[in-house]
Amino acid sequence: MESISPVTNQPTRSSGYDQSRRKRKKKPSQPPSSLSPFQSSLQKWRSEKQQQIYSTNIVQALREIRISAETDPSAKPPPHPRGGGRAVRDAAYRSLAVTARGRTLWSRAILSKAVKVKLKFRKQNRPRNSNPPTITGNNRLRKKRATVLRLKAKGLPAVQRKVKFLSRLIPGCRKQPLPVVLEETTDYIVAMEMQIRALNAIISAVGSGSSSSSSPPPPPETGHDS
User: Fold this and answer.
1) Residues 55-80: pLDDT tens digits?
2) Which residue intervals are annotated with compositional bias (Low complexity) in the record (predicted)?
């Protein structure tokens, strides 16, 4: 039987009832993901949805290159994807970084490099002064530092040299520790595999479409008189 409180004139409930009510309100905790970074990268980049997203991005990037070349008569025509070319290569890497949505170090490094290239291109198009560049003391200090760093790198153990070389191959991992370099390398390699599959699919689709359009129609059948 519930007791009546003289102050609030409302029935008081036991602490056990309050605790059970609080337990009911708590949401069940979700179990942590048991997938390793390597397995999650495989699952993400080997999915058909991710390949479709990248294919859409690269086709749009190539279309922008063609449109910019057509609007600017002084620009060179874009190279064919089969023959390669710097513009197509940059568009492929930039589309891969956009597909990654900047969630990795290598994707953010590629996107920031693309922005720096645009700014550098704008600076190069500005009128320059006729004065030739002079060698200053700062340039000499930079050369000395580069040679000192090379000598230090030669004195490192073999494993550290390999890790340092690997960190230079992966964008954005030059000054990262070994676990970060390995994780970024795994994701970068699987993303590159997806890029190759998507580009091969695009090239085969373009090749089959061009061959079907260029092939002459079959000759009409002539009937024999009876």
Assistant:
1) 999 999 989 888 877 776 555 544 44
2) 32-44
55 in Cβ contact with 198 (< 8 Å)? yes
Return the domain boundaries, the chain: 36-122+154-205
The total of other beta-carbon atoms located within 10 Å of residue 106's CB is 22
| Whether 62 contacts 85, CB under 8 Å | no
Burial of residue 202 (number of CB atoms within 10 Å: 0-12, 13-18, 19+): middle
pTM: predicted TM-score of the whole model, two decimal places = 0.60
Could you write out the three-class secondary structure of 30-43? CCCCCCCHHHHHHH
Q: In this structure, how many other beta carbons lie within 10 angstroms of the beta carbon of residue 69?
A: 15
Query: What's the pLDDT tens digit per position in 118-130?
Result: 665 566 555 565 5
Residue pLDDT, tens place only, 89-111: 899 999 999 999 989 999 999 99
**What does each C-alpha distance from 98 to 58, 61, 65, 173, 189 come to in angstroms?**
10, 11, 16, 18, 16
CB 206 within 8 A of CB 124: no
Q: Which long-range contacts (CB under 8 A, 24 or more apart) does 132-137 make?
A: none
Residues sharing a CB contact under 8 Å with residue 107, sequence separation 6 or more, in sequence order = 96, 97, 98, 100, 101
Residues forming a β-bridge with 4? 11
